[in-house]
Amino acid sequence: MTRRTRSARNVAAGCVAVLAFSLGACGGDSGDSGDSSGDDGPPTDASQADYCEVINDPAYFEDLDADSEDQEIVDAIQAIADDLREVGTPEDIPDDARDGFEIQLDAVDDLEADDIAVEGEEDPLLAGLSDADKEKVEAYRAYETETCPDETDIGTPDEPEPSIS
Predict the structure, then answer these.
(1) pTM score, two decimals?
(2) Mean pLDDT to the nearest integer, 124-153
(3) DSSP of 40-88, one letter per residue?
């Protein structure tokens, strides 16, 4: 197994993200996503509490550690993306961030174990995106970070936990 440069949480955040591999359009996959807004995408009226509960839920990654198989990491990322697709985003999300959210969800659908980033490789959730789509994903990541500060610390598999002196 190769050395990972990111924790599963960071890869998922780039998710859930993030999340697209040369996608031509963002916004929905099949139209049966449980959307309450009437279009093909995830709901646009989630409460901030419900949205952040999914974003910051450590349960998705509780069984993962430095020895986890890449497919286990992908499964965790896809589980959080499925839940985010069901919950949607709060209505105050800026349009570019919402587009980035949908781009990331689409990319997670295509994510495979071989895509998990290893040292020196591009983030698999940004690989193949146009500069415009990368900006949208970055807008989403900034929105997510500001809206749902992560108050959990699951550690990074390739970095030691900080010691308290």
Answers:
(1) 0.68
(2) 88
(3) SS--S---HHHHHHHHT-GGGGTT--TT--HHHHHHHHHHHHHHHHHH-
